[in-house]
Specification:
Helices cover 39% and strands 20% of the residues. It contains eight helices and nine strands. It is an alpha+beta fold and 246 residues long. The model has no long low-confidence stretch (mean pLDDT 96). A hairpin with a 2-residue loop joins β3 and β4. The strands form two sheets. Strands 3-4-2-1-7-8-9 form a seven-stranded mixed β-sheet.
């Protein structure tokens, strides 16, 4: 429903819903693709006799990591505080967080994995930990989207985002950086409900085709990648090392 609400009607268009967990889908067109990277092949929707297939990958923990900082260890009192706290430092100070608080989902599928901070020093502060948590969420998404691109045999042209955590501008900018792709956030971030409404509207005759739904989609903000390739490579190397240890 969220993929439909994001008007991702063309093959290769993808969205990520940042909720308690993170849920990524990419439109694979009229032909189902069997994943070689631990993703799920499923039906996106059926309009008339036309079926659209998708690849799906889920991360168990996304916004829940921020909730854990708030409720579990009391590092913040409200979820929205994390962005300002994380922005008060220029980087994580070498700290990497693996958000395996409920195991790791796609494409790893390691339920026995556990959450961990790596690289903590005497100089590590609450701000560094907060920034590492946001970056850890983005790293998970990057793993899934790279797997999707490999299965599709095509590079990612862009990503549309929704769900409560997508309002965190720092998270979205880092996501764009680490993916080296542009990210588009709509004005309506509750796109799961919106997609259901669009589908109902098609059935009721409020809209006559998907082009009218595409025209109704409105952008709030676009995030463009800014990070240097060498810095991306360093980040990904640290993340891969941390995941293997978790």
């Amino acid at each position: 429903a969220a993929l439909f609400g994001q008007a991702c009607f063309e093959r290769g268009q993808a969205k990520c819903t940042y909720g308690t967990g993170a849920f990524l889908l990419v439109n694979t067109g009229s032909t189902p693709i069997a994943s070689n990277h631990g993703l799920l092949t499923t039906v996106g929707w059926k309009l008339g006799d036309d079926v659209t297939y998708v690849l799906e990958g889920s991360a168990f923990i996304a916004g829940a990591a921020v909730q854990w900082l708030r409720d579990g260890i009391g590092l913040i009192s409200e979820a929205r505080e994390i962005e300002a706290l994380a922005a008060s430092v220029s980087d994580t100070g070498g700290v990497v967080f693996v958000p395996a608080l409920a195991g790791l989902g796609a494409p790893h599928w390691r339920p026995e994995a556990r959450g961990a901070f790596f690289g903590i020093t005497r100089g590590t502060t609450q701000a560094h930990l907060s920034r590492a948590v946001l970056e850890g969420i983005a790293f998970q998404i990057a793993d899934i989207l790279r797997a999707m691109c490999d299965d599709l045999g095509e590079p990612l042209t862009g990503l549309r985002v929704d769900g409560g955590a997508c309002m965190n501008n720092m998270l979205m900018q880092f996501q764009a950086d680490i993916l080296k792709t542009r990210i588009k956030r709509p004005t309506m971030i509750e796109t799961t409900a919106l997609g259901a409404a669009f589908l109902g509207g098609l059935g009721a005759g409020i809209w006559s085709n998907t082009q009218e739904i595409t025209d109704a989609w409105c952008q709030d903000r676009e995030f463009m990648p800014q990070m240097k390739d060498a810095d991306i490579a360093t980040h990904l190397e640290q993340w891969t090392n941390a995941v293997s240890r978790a």
